[in-house]
Task: structure prediction
Amino acid sequence: MEEDEQQSNTSRNLARETTSFGGGWSQQSLFSYQHHHYLLQLQNSYAFGFGYANRLQIFPALLPLPPVSYPSSPQEHRFEPRAAHFRKQSRKQKTPSNASQIQDFPAEKEVCTPRQLCVRKAVDARTKALAVARRPDCGGVEGKVITLLANHFLVKFDPTQKIFHYDVEISPHPSREVARMIKKKLVLENSKVFSNCLPAYDGRRTIYSPVEFQNDMFELYIKLPLSDEIGEHLGEEHCNKDKIFKVNMKLVSKFDGEAVSSYLNRDDDSSCSPLPQEYIHALDVVLRESSTEKCLSSGRSFYSSLMGGSREIGGGAVALRGFFQSIRPTQQGLALNVDFSVTAFHESIGVIPYLQKRLEFMQDISQKPAKILSCKEKMQVEEVLKNMRVFVCHRETLQRYRVYGLTEEVADNIWFPDRDGKNLRLVQYFKDHYDYDVKFRFLPCLRISRRKPCYVPMELCVVCEGQKFLGKLSDDQTVKMLKMGCQKPRERKAIIDGFMEGDLGPTSGDQANEFKLHVSREMTQLTGRILQPPKLKLGNGGNVRNLTPSRHDRQWNLLDSHVFEGIRVERWAILSFGGTPDQRSAITKFMKLLSEKCEQLGIFLNKETVISPVFEPMHILGNPKLLESKLKKIHIASRNNLQLLICVMERKHKGYADLKRIAETTIGIVSQCCLYSNLGKPSSQFLANLALKINAKIGGCTVALYNSLPTQIPRLFRLDEPVIFLGADVTHPHPLDDVSPSIAAVVGSVNWPAANKYVSRMRSQTHRQEMIQDLSAMVAEILDDFYQEISKLPARIIFFRDGVSETQFQKVLQQELQSIRDSFLKFPGYNPPITFAVVQKRHHTRLFPTDHFMDGNVPPGTVVDSVITHPKEFDFYLCSHWGIKGTSRPIHYHILWDENEFTSDEVQKLVYNLCYTFVRCTKPISLVPPAYYAHLAAYRGRLYLDRCDSISSVTVSSSPQTMPLPKLNENIKKLMFYC
Result:
């Protein structure tokens, strides 16, 4: 359950570091502790850990059981990228404002109706690629200048240096770790064939070389000692001889950096040639080569215990420090973006102790070795362990196994035939062959082979090191992760500088010199601008009061003011779940204090509820049917006219999701949740946050801009020509869930010129599908709501899209821009200009003040649109909030399409001003509100599918499903219930 009254939680979530891991160890660091044998420790105690006794014995491998069949995994969907690129018309050309921006081929002039034009544009857009918008000017000029440092390091390259791309095919197909071993040995043993150079390898099928090899196509053979580990990768369980690999290499292409240099240095924008990605990708592989050989690699990040150690965060997880790196085209040239990173890994301990830390019902297993797991408990154990890598400790081996599941029978009941056909009991087999008495005989065994299943008792397996923790972190784990990764700007800068100077960083190794690359070890210095805060409009007993946030953090208070628009809550009720008698007795006092705080803020909350507070036990939240019955009973007792239901809970509970779903879809009431722990001595801040959320959910608003948007941007906006601000986001299920659908949400403003009230639409769609599939219908519905409120359709559309990576820009522009246009077909003759902006918060650019007197973060309103931004395209970084903890992350805004023809100053001022209109707090937020609201709405849609009585499935036969979301009740459909 997400605690409703903690308005700052979501803000902190959006600013959290997000990292990933999925790589492997270098050969030198491959599980050195796996050589240790702790069989005697297993028999005496359960002090699993890294200090295993080094008493080795050589035993035969475990006999395989009869084979079983496995269903195949679902086929992945793949999308082919668009190849063609068409440029948007230059703004210097005089075209009507409503003309299509899609380049078309010459045709004879003909007269068309507006609807025919719309249809023609729809057809054209589906068949042509669109060019991303270019920067309209040299950047903004408004605001006070500030000198900054950015964690971008200039990469100098020789444009004449040729790079030779070779395709590599290795047979039999090895893992990435073995492939790197093969490449390393190939280069050492065949230096003449490789022209005495150090090529860079991506671990798959690509090798880049700074010189041409002797032959364009050749075939080599390489021998590797086939240890158990390598044999496991190849599906061979018993091999003690060298394995011969055939390596075929073929020259695919050769290129230099002239095209990239020309693109970066060209001042005019007459050419529409795209940035040559092949050369940049090659440099990226080259600069990653050294770190890949020394560290754990995960996507674009590297981790090692040598970078600051590891820290146990509980629940069977440890946190590890590392760094992110990526080469980017910028206005100063190519730059390497390097950032500090922290992520969680599974703790390398025995499987039994791991389960004791991970699952509550396993904590007493050492004292109760005869305990038998229920079906539900067994499913939870299987869900935790499935696909995890383990090694066995009953015999000497380097082999790592993947856990494919659990046995149906417990260890004591498992029998299997030996090679002579004689039936053997598993526990007796381990006693006879390994002199080991299985202690936990009533636990299932692990299935550690796919083709010929081998069953091993859990107590003889250890979790391999270096596996990313993919499960959802608990609140306590998240706090510990944040403490480890939360660094003040000066500390973070020192850590990043250390990576650049260190032996594991991107400047280590000789590959860069081979390709004539030089990476600066100094951060990029640049100038930003601090935008002025807008004047705000607040209430004051029916009168309007203006206020300009003047504090350093741009926060304001409502001590002498009211909210701009307060609502009246005449009919409301309180529902309690759990709580001690003393806690429940505080409800009356809480009602009085909350009503008084609302009155202070200009919000009317009736001092009396329509019915007496209802007290229910906590277990009601775990029974959706019973919970629905209780909620309906309260609604009927309130004569089906309840405006607000405040739910007070003893603790967080997953039944929160059912509560929200039932209240908002089945019954149609707005709910606000809080915890008893905050009611004992409720602070003024807690009560104020609660009041602001209640006011926003039922139709009020906290603040408005004193100088309306038409006043601030008169060139584009007019009072009589309303504008709509749309936000869109897609939320996906957690990494271990390969079945649940993704949730798409779109929100849109429905008042003008205030633009601070939004309606929402949510849809479920294909599992992990990032493109919004039903965007056209959702936008059309929001446009219809806009028309009902204002009696006009919006003259301009500003669309903020969250959650899109740079590799998806072309695809999202091609598909979703057309979907927005398709929504216009519902309104004949309607074709407003569209601005399509992508909002990126999960990037790794950080800004540091150079002023030694500024020990904290950059001030709110800091904007950067030069030096580190794209050399041609329309983007900027804006830090609109004040960072309290750690280092502020600016939001990266990238304008993909702009028919409204904003200037840099205009769009930056627009976004910054909107950040002051968020309804839940009295300070500017980090993310433009339409995108933030879309994020909250998508999260609410996800809750609708998280039923308390549903049982998660871990079977490999499960296939992705698209379960439709329940329909919102008409009573709340136009309210901001998701805030």
